[in-house]
Amino acid sequence: MEAKAINRYIGTSPRKMRLVIDLIRGKSVDEAMNILHFLPKHASKTAEKVLRSAVSNMQNKDHSGRVDTHSLFVKECFVDSGASMKRMMPAPMGRAYQILKRSNHITIVVSQKQNNDSNKSSKE
């Protein structure tokens, strides 16, 4: 079973967010939470919020509501670029330079680890 969380129109550039997201891809949820909590980048706070939301979605999906967070891992995480706000900045000799204030969309998918015993029996 897997659960997904999406946060849209985050006010940081996609390039800065990808630096943070690449650190947690494929890691266990506990390890990913530690990485994001102690990372000194501003984007890590938003990524941690989305990861917590994905774990919460997993618990809501389960009927008993008792999903062990130690058995969860980050299956997928990616950043897409969002809309860019276009602004103008005064430049020399009456010109204007365009500034793009970028945004991004972040998606995190968490899943439960499969037992090795069930995988061995299905292969044989």
Fold topology:
Blueprint: E1 2-10, H1 14-21, H2 29-38, H3 43-61, E2 72-81, E3 85-90, E4 96-101, E5 104-112, H4 116-123
Antiparallel strand pairs: 1-5, 2-5, 3-4
What does this protein structure show overall?
The protein is an alpha+beta fold. It has a single domain (2-123), classed as Ribosomal protein L22/L17 (Ribosomal Protein L22, Chain A, Alpha-Beta Complex), CATH 3.90.470. Helices cover 36% and strands 32% of the residues. It is built from four helices and five strands; from the N terminus they run βαααββββα. It has helices at 14-21, 29-38, 43-61, 116-123, and strands spanning 2-10, 72-81, 85-90, 96-101, 104-112. The protein has a three-stranded antiparallel sheet. Strands 3-4 form a two-stranded antiparallel ribbon. The mean pLDDT is 91.
Give the key terms.
two-stranded antiparallel ribbon; 32% strand; Ribosomal Protein L22, Chain A; alpha+beta; 36% helix; 124 residues; 3-stranded antiparallel β-sheet
